[in-house]
Specification:
396 residues, alpha/beta, four-stranded mixed β-sheet, 10 helices, 32% helix, Pept_M24, M24 family metallopeptidase, Creatin/AminoP/Spt16_N, Peptidase_M24B
Length: 396
């Protein structure tokens, strides 16, 4: 299916075109071939095909959405998708002037991308690709079909593109965080003595789904154990519970951790959670536009170093949005393997951070807080700012 270019086709570009063009220029990229679900979703203004929302494989191949975007040339943009996406376009037209809803696998998608690049005169251009999200058969086809093109890793450029959230994105992240927080608190209140980890995780899944969030995972501990996988382990009186869940709202991630207790917390537990909170607050105190990301990290790490729980406690902060770890990247290989490339850069307004302090206490168990904050000119706004103390189990 082809749609002739025209003013109406490019009047509703759903991203900051000038910013994307600038980032492409800085990266030496003439035209983008975005192939990851998160970047195609971003470039299409939030659209993700529901049929492949939870999987990619079909038949002998897999779903491979492609957004082609030429720097400074939105009239040459194209979306290449599955044949069933023609119906999606009929109901809510894509902004790209060209649409090919024609594919069932990787090679037909790659062929159409090549044909479109040739049609717009970019067969020998500097083409930005996503190596981690471009299957080898599609890459090989593109490489052979466009021998004069220079294929450039666009991963960092695309990460920078998504780092500064729009107001609409912030609202989705806020909603995701609120829904996840509400679901976790309701689950803690529901669980009681004898409830197993598997049952608690299933309850959380239902709580999130019933609130309109898409459940992705739950990492759960009970008692003195540090094991966060589902199991028949049952909650006992006096034991702590940590519940760390990720879910999304319209593709945007909610990722928080809260603590529960079956009974009343004793003085030691109050003290331990206060130590975690002290580190969290140290990090928050340095969150504002203009502060170097590394300065926020070092301030929180300094507070942790002074704490009596430092030997078995860890601090981590990372960017989040459409995926759980994205720009700004503030720490190197800690614990996710990537470079802290934003540590020496200032935080910017509308960046979103996940801030987490994790204690693996040798006898009292897994004690953690994870919070989501959006950077503002004067500080931060926290999403899902509830239940940050000890939440009582068996209360419902």
């Amino acid at each position: 299916m082809n749609i002739a270019p025209g003013k109406s086709a490019v009047s509703n570009i759903p991203f900051d075109q000038a910013r994307v063009d600038r980032l492409m220029e800085e990266a030496g990229i003439d035209v983008l071939l975005a192939t990851s679900k998160h970047n195609t979703q971003y470039l299409l203004g939030g659209y993700k095909f529901i049929f492949f929302a939870a999987m990619d494989a079909i038949g002998h191949s897999r779903y491979l959405p492609v957004v082609v975007y030429e720097k400074g040339g939105p009239d040459h943009a194209a979306y290449i998708g599955n044949r069933m996406e023609g119906g999606e376009h009929q109901n809510n037209p894509f902004w790209t002037p060209t649409l090919h809803a024609a594919c069932w696998g990787t090679l037909d998608a790659a062929n159409l991308a090549v044909e479109h690049l040739q049609k717009i005169g970019k067969a020998g251009a500097r083409i930005g690709i996503e190596p981690g999200f471009l299957p080898s058969d599609a890459y090989t086809l593109i490489r052979k079909a466009l021998p004069d093109a220079r294929l450039i890793d666009a991963t960092a450029m695309l990460e920078s593109m998504r780092a500064i959230k729009t107001d609409a994105e912030l609202e989705k992240l806020r909603t995701a965080s609120e829904l996840i927080t509400d679901s976790m608190l309701a689950t803690i209140a529901w669980a009681r003595e004898g409830t197993t980890k598997t049952e608690i995780i299933e309850r959380l899944r239902r709580e999130e789904t019933n609130r309109g969030a898409h459940f992705e995972y739950c990492l759960l501990t009970l008692g003195s154990s540090h094991n966060r996988a589902a199991s028949p382990q049952a909650w006992k009186k006096g034991e702590v519970l940590s519940i760390d869940s990720g879910g999304n709202y319209h593709g945007y991630i909610g990722d928080l951790c809260r603590m529960g207790i079956l009974g009343e917390p004793d003085a030691e537990l109050d003290d331990l959670l206060a130590e975690v909170e002290t580190v969290q607050q140290a990090a928050f105190s340095k969150v504002r536009a203009g502060t170097l990301g590394g300065d926020m990290i070092s301030h929180a790490e300094g507070a942790l170093k002074k704490s009596k729980v430092a030997p078995y406690t860890d601090f981590f902060a990372h960017g989040m949005g459409l995926i759980t770890h994205e720009a700004p990247f503030l720490m190197t290989n800690h614990p996710v393997t990537y470079e802290g490339t934003y540590a020496a850069k200032p935080l910017e307004k509308n960046m979103v951070l996940s801030v987490e302090t994790t204690m693996l206490h040798p006898t009292r168990g897994f004690i953690k807080l994870e919070d989501t904050v959006a950077v503002t000119d004067t500080g931060y706004v926290m999403f899902g700012d509830r239940g940050r103390g000890w939440n009582r189990g068996g209360a419902s």
